[in-house]
Amino acid sequence: MQALSIVIIAYLLGSIPFGYLIVRGKEGADVRTTGSGGTGATNVSRRAGKGAGVLTLVLDALKGAAAVLIAQTFSGNGWVVTAAAIAVIVGHIFPLWLGFRGGKGVATGAGTFLMLMPVALLCAGVIFVAIVLFTRYVSLGSMIAAATIPLFVWLQTVFVAPLTDLRPLLTAAMAGALLIIFAHRGNIERLARGTESQI
Questions:
Q1: Which of 63, 115, 123, 155 is least enclosed, having the fewest CB within 10 Å?
Q2: Are 89 and 112 in contact (CB under 8 A)?
Q3: Euclidean distance between CA atoms 73 and 11, whole angstroms
Q4: Coil/strand/helix, residue 48
Q5: Closest by CA position to 112, among listed 100, 104, 121, 123
Q6: Is the pTM of this model over 0.85?
Q7: Rounded to an integer, what distance in angstroms lies between the CA atom of residue 42 and that of residue 128?
Q8: How many CB atoms lie within 10 A of CB 177?
């Protein structure tokens, strides 16, 4: 029962639509009618400015970190922590309060892996920055960086911090990457058509 409660709390944390609330409060508008239609930092920046985007980024990352911290504190079981990490990303992408239409899960996913595997996150972050600087597509950088997280998790456990059981972390990394890429399906279509927005 405790494990289920932790997962539900993680999902509800993920469902807090910070980007939507910030744009609604500042502009009186629904950020989902702008750009990619997401509630994340990039789309918030397009609608309400860079300051609002940075605030959204930080708050979305914090809710990912908070979900993992709660799971680690009240359970400590690797699989419960994994379930909480996945649940908070699911909550961000499919928020209860917005008809299950939210953001892309990138910042929230980054928050979870800041707590779980910071070295792997840092490596993926370098990939993200390089791709965005080279192509100017945030969406492309986000998807490729997310896809590399499982690899960097494995490399970190081999060369930096060996674990007796890699399965929970690798499961979280793979599920998170798949969720983030799925949430970018509209971006993938626009990239293919050459109509995706650049920064």
A1: 155
A2: yes
A3: 17
A4: helix
A5: 121
A6: yes
A7: 14
A8: 23
